[in-house]
Amino acid sequence: MDKSHKPRWTSFENATKKDFLAVMDYEEAYNAALPDRILAAIRSLDEEWTPYPLNRYQHSLQAATRAYDDKADEEIVIAALVHDVGDILSPYNHGELAAAMMKPYVSERTYWILKHHCVFQGYYYNHFLGGDRNAREKYKGSRWYEDAIYFCHTYDQCAFDPDYPTKPLEFFEPMLRRVLSKGWGHMELDEKREDVA
User: Fold this and answer.
1) Which InterPro entries match (predicted)?
2) How far apart are CA 121 and CA 133, in angstroms?
3) Alpha-carbon distance 48 to 79, whole Å?
4) For residues 83 and 98, what is the distance between their CA atoms, to the nearest angstrom?
């Protein structure tokens, strides 16, 4: 990529194929550092004060450790690691943000669990806050309904134990890099890949 040449096009409709190939080269180089950006996002969850017994960073590590100890597949271990990273930018729909981030790299099942885990997690506390603890029932027809219940019950809702032997982030880094290396690229170029409701 020629960094000395500044592109002169001002809109997509007047850019050329050569221009877009240069953009793709840039994006490939930028995307190679995605694991580092996700690791930094996970570290940013390490806030000093929290009303939980553990902060979100420790909770994420413990959820991933619980999945690993349960012999979950690597993709689910990483889903447990990143499931709350969307809290940084979008706390009220953080599951959708985490799911969107991981969609090009994980199965439809893992994407669906990440996207909907907030609703399933609400089973444990919605009734205390004036909500419906059974809100997850609206997804009862999904083929991944039971998987989401298992994910939340076994890895998420219980991952606040200060005494649980939790693995450090460095333990999960090679797994994260492997999962992110399996991506299928730009979603807009893959007409066969459907959105999963």
Assistant:
1) HD_domain (IPR006674), OP_Dioxygenase (IPR052567)
2) 9
3) 24
4) 6
Q: How far apart are CA 98 and CA 100, in angstroms?
A: 6
Measured distance CA(170)–CA(64) in Å, rounded: 12
Query: What pLDDT, in 10s, does the model give residues 74-129?
Result: 999 999 999 999 988 988 889 999 999 999 999 999 999 999 999 999 999 999 99
Angle 88-155-48 from CA coordinates, rounded to 5°: 40
For residue 55, what are the CA distances in angstroms to 50, 60, 152, 160? 6, 9, 17, 8
Cα-based distances in Å from 190 to 22, 118, 183: 20, 28, 12
Pair 156, 70: CB distance under 8 Å: no
Question: String of b and e for 140-152 (b: at least 16 CB within 10 Å)?
Answer: eebebbebbebbb
Task: In whole angstroms, give the CA distance from residue 138 to residue 87.
Answer: 24
Whether the per-residue pLDDT at 23 is higher than 90: the answer is no
Residue 165's pLDDT band (boundaries 50, 70, 90)?
very high
Residue 24 φ then ψ, to 5°: -65, -40
